[in-house]
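Translate sequence into structure tokens.
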Amino acid sequence: MMIFDLLLQTVTITFDTMITVFIMLFLTGLLLELGAFQRISHLARPLVCISHLPPVSASTFVISLGSALAANTMIARLQTEGQLTYRQAMLSAMMNSVPVYFRELFTYQLAFVIPVLGLFVGGLYALISIATGAIKLMLVLVLGRAYLPALNKDDARGLPSPLSPLSHGAIHHPGNTGISAERLKDAASKSLRGQRRIFLRIAGLYFIMTFLVLYLSGQGILASLNVLPLAEFFRVPPETIIPLTVYVASPKAGITLLGPLIQTGGISEVKALIVLMLGSMFMLPFYSLRSLMPNYTSVFGMKLGLSLVLISTSISVLVRMSVLLMLLVTTN
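Result follows.
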């Protein structure tokens, strides 16, 4: 692929993605200036109190239930403005990655994986995914209590504090719950000014990382790697090589091929789980390279972004490696 074609494809991908990013940045900035997030932060207050995270982290966690991108851009802005420390931003972003595991239980596991793989294999596959999210959440709680100072009484109640969005730009009068046109205009103006710098940084880094991934893919560097050595090392049945290879490129396609093998008795349920765990271990790093790295580094910068990608990928791989080792022990 010519460099010009790569640049054109990168610009197209970046432009399409950045439209969504800009809208999310503006809306979250607007709501932040209006103090709207303070009113819903109580929903995640227990998690924040246990982990010693600031009240705004409760707000971003609630937002991540709908959009992790919107939640993370809000964290990135607050860190840029000095309202969140590096550790607070990292743990908040890790916590924001948890809801997707529980959301996929209904949109992916129950709707696709379990019907195709069966109740036993599909159910365990879904349980492993949920366990990964739970482990990430527990890690946030443990690290937060270990490395962050305890909240003071005002913060614990969710009252305005130096780390609260209400103390920065947004002015909230308890007796005035309405939003005037003047206040809305002022909040929109502040949102645009506050998000401009972070948006330009996101767009620039996203363009660079997307170009790098497309270039590596175009050179065949990623596709040149295969799972045959790993398959031979773990002694998976020969008939599972194709589903295993396909799974690395597309989990849905691999699961679709593996389903009939289980139903017809061509592979045992335990061997099917071994294939799924092995395929996941091989697929996750490439998924992180293609998807997580451009997103996290563009939002948080190289240092924090790469740290988040490394931590998230390591946890996911270690969980599946642990399950794989247990399966291998039981079958030998």
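Note: The radius of gyration is 22 Å.
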